[in-house]
Amino acid sequence: MDFMKPEYYRNRELSWIQFNERVLGEARDKTLLLFERLKFLSITASNLDEFFMIRVASLKDMVNANYMKPDIAGMTPSMQLEEISKKVHDLVGVQYSTLIRSLIPALRQNGLVFVREHEDLDEEEAAFIDEYFAENVYPVLTPMAVDSSRPFPLVRNKTLNIGALVKRKPDKAVGKAEEDEAEEAEKEAEEFATVQVPSVLPRIVELPAKSDGTRKVILLEEIIERNISKLFLNYDVICAHPYRIMRNADLTIDEDEAADLLKEIQKQLKKRQWGEVIRLEVEDSMDKQLFKILKREFHVTDSEIYRISGPLDLTFLMKLYGLDGFEQLKAPKHVPAPVPQMQEEGSIFRKIRGGDILLHHPYQSFGPVVDFVKEAAKDPNVLAIKQTLYRVSGNSPIIAALAQAAENGKQVSVLVELKARFDEENNIVWAKMLEKAGCHVIYGLVGLKTHSKITLVVRREGDGIRRYVHLGTGNYNDATAKQYTDCGLLTCSPAIGEDATAVFNMLSGYSEPLTWNKLVLAPIWLRDRFLELIHRERDNALAGKPARLVAKMNSLCDQEIIAALYEASAAGVKIDLIIRGICCLKVGIPGISENIQVRSIVGNFLEHARIFYFLNNGQEEVYMGSADWMPRNLDKRVEILFPVEAEEPKEEAKHILKIQLADTMKAHVLKKNGEYEKVDRRGKELLCAQDYFAAEAWEKAEEAQEEEKVNDRIFVPEEPSGE
After folding, report:
1. Is residue 183 scored above 70 in pLDDT?
2. Is the pLDDT of residue 716 over 80?
């Protein structure tokens, strides 16, 4: 059978839009707490921004280059752009109907009034706003007019701006000459002017509290609009409306030609502000003449224009979520549980020697990962620390520990991936700091992104050199580790330690070893290994042996992998896929994908772990890693797949998959028609996997603590001396 037919595949961009619709579904879910719904609506907006700056921008580049090759679903770039525009316009319509018709009225009912128009302010509030403008806002603003001597200004990517039409005020006429001048001034055309809403000021401004306890907020752009005439004293302001643009932010770097990758990326980052405009958002009531000017100056087509019936850039809702008070409308703040194996006092290295430790974030604390590097930095027996960094937090304790380790005289090698999208500037800062501290910093590999998450600690011990390794599915970022679900493995397995050394030798420029023990790397042979594992289940099914496959990841869009899954399904392998975002596979195709089920879990935490289970005729194998089943992960990135072999961690990994497959609260199931639907709960136990794991993590931590107390109370008599 031909498993490569375009009709068997879904376009990746349209599948991503479906994912964002699932996130939007959480904002529309009236069973959720009100402020949680605000948060999900904000996330849909930030998701869309990145989607346009990268994915839509890439398609635009293809169209501009007359690239006509269809994708795996048979769609050319121009066909994709057309369909994306339709879908996203519909999505934005639902975003704003959710905000205006549901969330804002619900906020009002709960004592928080969102002032949409500055005209709705009473006299006291208006006076407060005018004073706030004069003292806090006016000194920061830079109004820019456009005329024959002043060209259209650079409007920065993603910034919120207010466009205005202004007309010079006529001078008071005194005598015939002045009258003629005044008449001439009246005939002058309206001019365009713009002012950026400053991002350095809070976008949400709270008004003085009312006696009835009601709280009111207004947006900064409304305050500026109300006082905009003060910025153009010699002009009459005809109209003023907010607008926002999105530019192509996909960096194009010729790494082979770049003598210094660091300098080249710094240069390219500046160009992000000059990229082609790919989306224009305007207030739906915008003056026709003003709209015409913006459309002309930004060179946008009708399909790239979004008329908004509400405040632009809904990412501000995350700030609204952060308002003090209203705790009854927010989910209780999640506190990660201690890791049971790490609760007792003592060296982290001794604990790892006791057996492999599986970490499950954010249900369990990310602290052990930070402590692993911190202790290594201080331990006099540690000789070397090697680590890959893709995205780290703004005030990273891991970076500080690595710098301290270098200052303590240890060999510290760090691969900082400068091409980590939207973290380039942050990573450049960290790389320079680590170099100053004495670390050996590698700026990634030419043509590849290093996306693997690995730390190697080399330690001198009584019986020789021992290597300790942390492998993860998520970044070394202590901030996102509280929001993303990820897994990590701490081990001192000699085989994995040997492979870890080989990984870093390869990254720092040495040749690849002839053999590997346990780790599987992309782009060398990870694709082949996954295909081999899938084909093995297929062969077992054809031979009448037990065959089963469960895979959890962020995205699935690799055609070769999907074709292998189709082939396995057709052979009778039962396949369960837990895919948060993009899924280009179709279910329910007769004779092809009838044995495949796909589910997506969208909850309070971002599902980010990659776990792969293969029944293997009863000899179960479990793997984790940093790679999704996408061409970029398998072919264009350095990724690591690692086995989970120790019995306890292996059972824990299988347990994670089992609970997620049983989720009836947050799981969406892919149907034959290509749509996702919430799980049918009739006759099923209500189960939210994320809540289950959070509660379970604390139960295990408390059990371990009690056990430790009991052990402390047990009196163990000393051995008789024999005297």
Report:
1. no
2. no
User: How far is Cα 536 from Cα 235, in angstroms, rounded to an integer?
Assistant: 76
Angle, CA of 684, 686 and 692, to the nearest 5°: 130
Amino acid at 503: V
Q: How many structural domains comprise the chain? A: 4
Judge if 510 and 376 occupy the same domain.
yes
DSSP 644-705: --SHHHHHHHHHHHHHHHT--SSEEEE-TTS-EEE---TTS----HHHHHHHHHHHHHHHHH
Residue 180 resides in a domain: no
Residue 586 sits at the vertex; the CA angle it makes with 581 and 592, to the nearest 5 degrees, is: 145
- Within a domain: 428: yes
Residue 454 main-chain phi, psi, to 5 deg: -145, 140
Assign residue 689 the CATH number of its domain: 3.30.870.10
Q: Which residues make Cβ contacts (< 8 Å) with residue 380, sequence separation at least 6?
A: none
| 10-24, 306-320, 393-407, 576-590: the lowest-pLDDT one | 393-407
For residues 145 and 103, membership in a common domain is answered with: no
* Owning domain of residue 38: 1-116+315-333
Q: What is the DSSP letter of 316?
A: G
Q: How far apart are CA 387 and CA 415, in angstroms?
A: 6
438 and 472, same domain (yes or no): yes
Active-site residue (options: 241, 360, 361, 451): 451
pLDDT at 710: 66
For the chain, what is the mean pLDDT? 90
666 pLDDT higher than 90: yes
The answer as to whether 642 is a domain residue is yes
Contact 265, 418 (CB under 8 A): yes
The mean pLDDT value for 212-237 works out to 91
Rounded to the nearest 10°, the torsion over CA 458, 460, 462, 463 is: 50
CATH of the domain at 111: 1.20.58.310
| Mean pLDDT value of segment 391-419 | 90
Report the pLDDT averaged over residues 350-355: 96
Is 96 contained in some domain? Answer: yes
Average pLDDT over residues 394-419: 90
- Is it the case that residue 53 has pLDDT exceeding 80? yes
Q: Is 665 helix (H, G, I), strand (E, B) or coil?
A: coil
Together in a domain, 573 and 468: no
Count of C-beta atoms within a 10 Å radius of residue 476: 28
Query: In this structure, are residues 398 and 430 in contact, taking their beta carbons and an 8 Å threshold?
Result: no
Buried residues in 173-193 as b, exposed as e (16+ CB within 10 A): eeeeeeeeeeeeeeeeebbbb
Task: Establish whether the linkage from the previous residue to 362 is cis, with ω within 30° of 0.
Answer: yes
DSSP lists the bridge partners of residue 442 as 415
The confidence band for 624, taking pLDDT boundaries of 50, 70 and 90, is very high
Token pair 């998701």 is found at: 47
Q: Which of 190-194, 223-227, 596-600 has the lowest mean pLDDT?
A: 190-194
Round to whole Å and give the CA distance between 112 and 122.
16
Clarify whether 361 is annotated catalytic.
Answer: no
* Residues 238, 275 within the same domain: yes
Which domain-ending residue is among 493, 518, 543?
518
| 530 and 580 fall within a common domain | yes
Give the tens place of pLDDT for each residue, 255-284. 444 445 556 555 555 555 567 899 999 999
| Residue 215: per-residue pLDDT | 92
Q: Are residues 449 and 466 in the same domain?
A: yes
Is residue 624 located within the same domain as residue 701? yes
CATH number where 267 lies: 3.30.1840.10
Confidence of residue 179 (pLDDT cuts 50, 70, 90): low
C-alpha 217/C-alpha 196 separation (Å) is 21
